[in-house]
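[Automated response] Your request has been received and processed.

Submitted sequence:
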Amino acid sequence: MEVVEIENKQVVLKQYVEGIPTESDMEVKSGNKTKLEAPKGSGAFLVKNLYLSCDPYMRGRMRDFHGSYIPPFVVDSVIEGFGVAEVVDSDNRSFEPGDVVSGFTGWEEYSLIKKPEQLRKIQQDDGIPLSYYVGLLGMPGFTAYVGFYEVCSPKKGDHVFVSAASGAVGQLVGQLAKLNGCYVVGSAGTSQKVDLLKNKLGFDEAFNYKEEPDLAAALKRYFPEGIDIYFDNVGGEMLDAALVNMRIHGRIACCGMVSQQSLSKPPGIYNLYNLVTRRVKMQGFLQSDYLHLFPRFQEEIISYYKQGKIVYVEDRSYGLESAPAAFVGLFSGKNVGKQVICLVS
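Generated structure:
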């Protein structure tokens, strides 16, 4: 039987990026043809991508820098990221046509998966949107889960501050903190996001950091007795402000530091001495260090979601053509919630 070939639209990286990414750093390419079969003897499988994830860490892969935990993208090649996809054809006994999977895939309509270990099957549940497997139940949600429980070591009654609190990670951190009996304050960059934090996501308080001339004073206002846990998604000036507001034996989880990722010479932190005087633990982490906890994470979060104890906010864009703008929008705070590119209606 003749193998069907189909056009495969793709998003490629045009050049390595200095500074804040722009749409022109990427290109949506048409005209590439893909055979709708996995090569025999390859052990690979072919997927049709359904949902793609826009994540700030991908900015780091747009640099010509090989000293990180993950290699850079290849110029003129398809951008890679987390996604949800359906298996179309398979030469791998562990995956069959019709299986729905989540994990690393390409920013394209069809991807040939040559590293099956980078994806896992999804047990579909009518009560869980498939797109949640790149957000709430994917890497961002797992980052929130292990960062909060494994790095921050929360106790009931802790005072918790979350920056970039309405984003893919922050919104879940805040809700987990509330479920653990903590007092929770979040920061965000618009009044719409502040309203979302207080009225939909259940934060005790929230503020627009762009309206605060003195971030340290703002935190003092919301935490007059100090901060036990700071879940840091931004770094920079907000981290400096939190350092002077930490309680003795406070914990800081360093996650992403999105304000610093586009700076070739990021400014230094002035208030680190507070780590000594207040005996504060500050720790960076990667969710990939905790993959043994992933099954427990999904089980607990699915249970919370089905009980109505947590909600999750997505910002959806549609079609591969929307991907460059959606990604660039992450760095100006344009997205409200988890940014997802939908390749299905």
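Summary generated for your ticket: The longest helix spans residues 139-151. The radius of gyration is 21 Å.
If you did not submit this request, please reply to this message.
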